[in-house]
Design a protein that fits this description.
Blueprint: E1 11-15, H1 20-31, E2 35-40, H2 43-54, E3 60-64, H3 70-84, E4 89-92, H4 110-138, E5 143-147, H5 160-180, E6 186-192, H6 198-203, H7 206-214, H8 224-235, E7 246-249, H9 253-256
Parallel strand pairs: 1-2, 1-4, 2-3, 4-5, 5-6, 6-7
Length: 262
């Protein structure tokens, strides 16, 4: 007997879908039966991710956009619904360290502080608002999944603006879960551990990776597929009682690593 995840034929939107966690999530949502809109600022990466998602049998719509612009976010959601119908699942995955190496707070410049908060917290706010408005307007019960970070739950040494922005996402998630529950909309945050996306892999040397691995109870770093499967579980009927929570998909990193390995 197989288990019906309740995602068949539903429309899912994944932001930051060109590489890493977003790309893996789009593929796994397609495997679960969703039609998928994928969005990213990198057109070339997005095209490849869309092709990999379509291989799974999904209808795929692509949107190239810089989601730091709230108008672009609203156009993204409207375009997604115009192409594939009412939105039932939204995965907000845009966020990063902005291409910067970990830096002591005293040495952080204004541009980095502002940019990290904008890219991680404000973009998630813009997306949540546009997605929730669309779900309410269409009367579609749905789920919004925000990608947070384990850095939001402990002192985020040398990554202060990133940890603060991700902690803001956790707070936003709980608030929206209460505000949107009456509309049948669940809102959940998921937190990876250190994930070996191409960007992260390029930033850490082998010795740093070894120290990070040693700090994970399961003895391995998070792979994009790890969090993608967690997201699908949360978004599916299996996670139907979960809202307002921070769900870890980090191989236990939040239990053990209390100081940076670099």
């Amino acid at each position: 007997m197989s288990i019906d995840l309740g995602l068949g034929g539903k429309h899912a939107l994944v932001t930051g879908a060109g590489i890493g966690i977003g790309r893996a999530t789009a593929i796994w949502l397609a495997r679960a039966g969703c039609h998928v809109t994928v969005a990213d600022v990198d057109a070339a990466a997005l095209a490849e991710a869309a092709s990999a998602t379509a291989v799974e049998g999904a209808e795929v719509h692509t949107i190239v956009a810089d989601l730091r612009d709230p108008d672009a976010v609203r156009h993204m959601v409207a375009g997604a619904e115009g192409a594939l119908g009412p939105l039932a699942v939204a995965v907000n995955n845009v966020g990063s360290m902005g291409g910067r190496v970990p830096t002591r707070f005293l040495d952080a410049d204004d541009e980095w502080l502002r940019g990290i908060v904008e890219l991680n917290l404000l973009v998630t706010m813009y997306c949540c608002q546009a997605e929730a408005r669309a779900m309410v307007a269409s009367g579609t019960p749905g789920v919004i999944v925000n990608v947070s970070s384990g850095e939001s739950t402990r002192p985020s040494l040398r990554m202060a603006p990133y940890g603060a922005a991700k902690a803001g996402i956790n707070s936003l998630t709980g608030t929206l879960a209460v505000e949107l529950g009456a509309h049948g909309i669940r809102v959940v945050a998921v937190a990876p551990g250190t994930t070996l996306t191409p960007v992260v892999a390029a930033a850490f040397d082998d010795a740093t990776v070894e120290r990070l691995v040693a700090a994970h109870p399961l003895g391995r770093l998070t792979e994009p597929d790890d969090l993608a499967r967690t997201i699908v579980a949360v978004a599916s009927d299996l996670g139907g009682a979960v809202t307002g929570s921070l769900v870890f998909g980090d191989n236990g990193a939040h239990l053990a690593r209390n100081r940076p390995a670099f």
